[in-house]
Amino acid sequence: MNGARVAKIERTTAETTVTVEIALDGSGQASVDTGIGALDHFLTLFARHGCFDLTVRARGDLHVDGHHTVEDVAICLGQAVRRALGDWRGIRRMADAAVPMDEALAHVALDCSGRGLFIHRDPFPPGSVGQLECDLARHFLETLAREARITIHLVTLYGQNAHHQLEAIFKALGRALDRATQLDPRIADRLPSTKEHLEVES
């Protein structure tokens, strides 16, 4: 792995304009403005608990709904993570984290495998948190996994409050991704695969 593990992704469509910058080896500093307050909050938690430095700027057609903005932020964040990992050599690759938030508990296990897949064992809580529909949070994670080319398994073990459940999920995601993307000196510059190959190219 050569150089700083940082990336910037910009995306402009007829529906949104999005810029995402991430530094994997940061200190948890976040500046997030998507126009959707709950998404800003949860991405800030993701960055803080993952020790990522994260900047997100998004403007979208919120007069329609939040779908395009949430999806395109997830696309950009996933691509930024993938690009910041460089050639993916030397990383730990797999990790998990269980995080409580009051009465809610979420467990995220992930694999930086080069294969984008999102599995959620139980239905997401119904309704919305602020302007963020809970099903859009699920779609965010699904899109992030696909674009980052990581496998994410999520179990929301229990909880009664949707805000608490989503907060536990995003904190757990940050912590698990931090651990999985950390460089392991024992691996040095090898790929963390007996195949000596990961499908990480664009």
Your description of this structure?
- The chain is an alpha+beta fold.
- It has one domain: Ribosomal Protein S5, domain 2, CATH 3.30.230.40.
- The protein has 4 helices and 10 strands, in the order βββαβαβββββαβα.
- It has helices at residues 37-50, 67-84, 134-148, 162-181; strands spanning 6-12, 16-23, 30-33, 53-60, 94-101, 104-111, 117-120, 128-129, 132-133, 151-158.
- The chain has a 4-stranded mixed beta sheet with strand order 1-2-4-3, covered by helices on one side. A 4-stranded mixed beta sheet has the order 5-6-10-7, with helices on one face.
- A hairpin with a 2-residue loop joins strand 8 (128-129) and strand 9.
- The longest helix has 20 residues, at 162-181.
- The mean pLDDT is 92.
Q: What structural keywords apply?
A:
202 residues; alpha+beta; four-stranded mixed sheet; 4 helices
